[in-house]
Amino acid sequence: xxxxxxxxxxxxxxxxxxxxxxxxxxxxxxxxxxxxxxxxxxxxxxxxxxxxxxxxxxxxxxxxxxxxxxxxxxxxxxxxxxxxxxxxxxxxxxxxxxxxxxxxxxxxxxxxxxxxxxxxxxxxxxxxxxxxxxxxxxxxxxxxxxxxxxxxxxxxxxxxxxxxxxxxxxxxxxxxxxxxxxxxxxxxxxxxxxxxxxxxxxxxxx
Length: 206
Hints:
This protein has 206 residues and is an alpha+beta fold. It is 50% helix and 19% strand. The chain is built from 10 helices and 5 strands. The protein has helices spanning 32-36, 65-74, 82-91, 94-102, 106-109, 117-127, 136-150, 157-167, 172-185, 191-204, and strands at 4-13, 16-21, 24-29, 43-53, 56-62. The protein has a 5-stranded mixed β-barrel with strand order 1-2-3-5-4. The two termini are 37 Å apart.
């Protein structure tokens, strides 16, 4: 199985790349924003999901390992194939997608072409808990976006970290306790560090 590719872009169009790796050109399907950010002769590194079928071998590539992880989770949901999963990740930025699944924001998911109400419901039901620790950075970004909508200013990384955990579905009381515990550890106080350690604390306390 091919899990990672590093090479040069030979050809590019929305949703598709041809990557030259040691003189061999690999066709890779990738999120549209990723492909649009590249041009021929650019260096590229991709985390790859290899799909093997009787009549084809297809590669799906992602610039971010968390995008790949989410793609593999989404394709495990009944009724969601790789092309639909790729469309979902192409149309909804990772932090927003994680947030939509955690908050069961069916209206946001159904705005993606091919995602109906039943499929959106299944995505939320089956993946809500699985995406919790997927990307602390994505959770932090989602919290920042939510905080920007809800308030004109933030009191600092501790409050932002609490917002991140609340946006992931935890109660405010549990989120605040987890962030206090994370801050007491003293091993880094950036927003991403606080979210990551807060998630670890919540995982240890049912």
